[in-house]
């Protein structure tokens, strides 16, 4: 169990921990000189002879060091709220209480200190004051203990209460990747660099490889301490000290706020969607896009708050918001966050992370807000997934979900209604009904295309994607089309997609013109006339002839070798057959030219077309025949 103190400056937090543990704690010279806790202090003690070690985090109470208090509050299981009997509830008492409530720390005990300095009536008055302070929040009715760190009054009763809380504490899940928010880093002679923090998830053991900081520098765990004892492995919920090593790793490269993570979880982000609660004690509403200090893990960074459900958030109210962070952070679903004002003088509110990979566009759309509502209500990926899929028509990236919820796919319990679609850029998740609806829409839009363009064989993939107007990225759409092709729900002729029963139909004018143009193209064999010559010969407009030949190219009847130069399908296959009959696989331009009986320029234009369709491959000044091309197959010649 990790116990953290909270309370106003000079209310006896450090002395109380010394009385509980018998240890003077971890004090720096400037702290001893000034008589206050400036940075985090740590102690480890067994609350009973047969009890495991309990970690105690002594946090500073001075308002100037609230950022240090926030760094120490991460990973605490129980907060020990300390209130001096002579002072009573003070400003930092209230702010510390607000912070631990925002962080979602489950348990709290109250110590009324310095009871040897005041009359019993004063102690009772302060206890009543504390009960009133706690009444509106999650710690209403928390047990209070009147203690004196000098005389020892009440210390044993408080120790027994802590021991009972430790026995009742549910161990944290060891699932997911290891995460450590670093709160200290120092060098030990003969060992090297050591970093400390509370393990927030997963487990780690000696020899593991982890990634350090936003740059993701690989490091190796050489040794570790868990709860201040030498160990070979450590688990979520423990105070951990890791001796790490890496090439060119220096102490000055490591800072409080850095994360130490399993490799697959490392995903820095600068946009977080959160469920935000503004403290009721705030004097005015929080405006859209207000600058704030964000505290996440042990990190303190500046950010802007983009409100997603309005322009102002009233004191005491809640709203979905997006944090635009000025430096990369690491987060997973459920992480608590605390926001302080731009000058870091007071705590504004906080909440928890819903999506660490928040979208930059359509963040206020009804679909996105519905997703956030599902994320806010869910305790697990499985609970959130149906609503996420229902509102996300473009599919969900499972790797992103792994990082969002800190759970690898092999631990998911997916419902039968979830379909995994393989794409060229990795798998995507769809609701099965939704995926079938997308396929039905593509078929309906393809039928509509045939109605609008009866003289075309069909669109290519990209044109069909634009025509169907689906909210799918190209890789997902290609997979959808491939699935329809595999089911023979659609057919392909070259690059053109069409329904199996569709046949392109020319209108009467095009049919009549084609009957004039086709004989001219066939008669010219390897040197067909240009569009302008065909227009002159048929008494037509150039644009009319050009449009017809492009239609015929989509139908596979002609090939456009260069602009305004079209070869009939039969002629192209004849030229390909001649090329294949030449000795060897290397193409000789002069031999090919002489075989066709045309000029060098025209023969090169034909060969370059063969390059484009994959019959030949250009390698420097040489060309080689590709025998796997459709035109090279025996039945096609």
TrEMBL record:
An example Gene Ontology molecular-function term: translation elongation factor activity
Main location: cytoplasm
Residues annotated as domain Tr-type G: 1-172
Keywords from the named record: Cytoplasm, Elongation factor, GTP-binding, Nucleotide-binding, Protein biosynthesis
Pfam family, one: WHD_3rd_SelB
Subcellular location: Cytoplasm
NCBIfam families to which the protein is assigned, alphabetical: selB
The protein's name: Selenocysteine-specific translation elongation factor
Organism the protein comes from: Pseudomonas qingdaonensis
Lineage: Bacteria, Pseudomonadati, Pseudomonadota, Gammaproteobacteria, Pseudomonadales
